[in-house]
Amino acid sequence: MKNQLLRRWRLVHTWSSLVCTVFMLLLCATGLPLIFHDEIGRLTGTEVSAPTLPPGTPAADLDRVRASATRAHPGTVPQFMYQESDDDTQWLFTLNRSVQARTEPASAIVDARTAQLLGQPRYDEGFMFLMFRLHVDLFAGLPGRLFLGAMGLLMVIAVISGAVLYAPFARKTALGAVRGKPGDLTRWLDLHNVLGIVTLVWTFVVAATGVVNALSELVLDHWKNEQLATLIAPYMGQPAAPSSGSLQAAVAAARASAPGMRPAIVAFPGTEFATPYHYAIFLRGDTPLTARLLKPVLVDARTAQVAASAEAPWYLNALLLAQPLHFGDYAGMPMKIVWAAMDVLCIAILWSGLVLWWRRRRPTEVFALRSQYL
């Protein structure tokens, strides 16, 4: 009975891992440079660093910051502006021909302290763009995201079933033992098992957060149709603001409504995350954890009065926490190095799994392997 149960688990492990292995190898290969996207971006010019200024330099008026971004791309209007959680020295703007436009936006990075233009990077070309699109959706949009999410789910199943299969083996062999001669199937299996246990938690976390990230577009759409729609419903049908009011006053009002929080994202009036007459300002906390979570605040573009605010639902918080955890963005360079090392080990696990599957097709090797492990 016990051997029969193990055979079932082995079948689950073999086929769940076999189906997703090629795509997991692709995701590991493309994910490795994405771990260091900031550093690579600075080398390639897609990431811009703000100049060093004396500590305590005050932030510039946000209306001046917006004007600098708009001047960089005449004939456009800003749709969104945002800051990274660990860098409050610059604002990144996306601009388009109109606030409702869905064409590829232009970008501008403006110093948050001097309101000087720092750069106009393009994010739709180059090596990192290729790595990102292959990693996120295989250049196939939402269907590609969902397909890779399904592969991630199979990886989660493979990790769980692999841990179940390793348990009885661990009672027969020393922890970390790699037996057999180089090239033996036994040695490949021991190596596969040892690396799998060493990276068990990491692989599970990265695969699970990858599944969550694959659903990001659906999660955001659900949030827009549920909570955000509820927030803006009372204001539908009102006359649209003739022009966007003071950005500085709107952000100041949002911050005053939630002390201890600072702006992370601003959606300008008329964009899909705001209304024609409100700024949607997303605030974040000031701790490593709360800096990843967002609180939406609607501010009237004409009067700079807070119209509504709400706490983000649990599913949006889960997405916001999963995204940086997937790429090791929580603890600076030390965590990135750990993530990169684990990524390389995961590639070794996937490759050894392929070798095991291929060589198990030889009856003599399978018989020798079963005589030792069953």
From TrEMBL:
Q: Which Pfam families match?
A: PepSY_TM (PF03929)
The name on file for this protein is: PepSY-associated TM helix domain-containing protein
Give the organism, scientific name: Pseudoduganella chitinolytica
Give the matching InterPro entries. Answer: PepSY-ass_TM
Does the keyword Kinase feature in the UniProt annotation? no
Asked if the keyword Transmembrane belongs to this entry, the reply reads yes
Please, which domain of life does this record's source organism belong to?
Bacteria
Keywords on this record? Membrane, Transmembrane, Transmembrane helix
Membrane-spanning segments: 12-36, 146-170, 191-215, 337-358
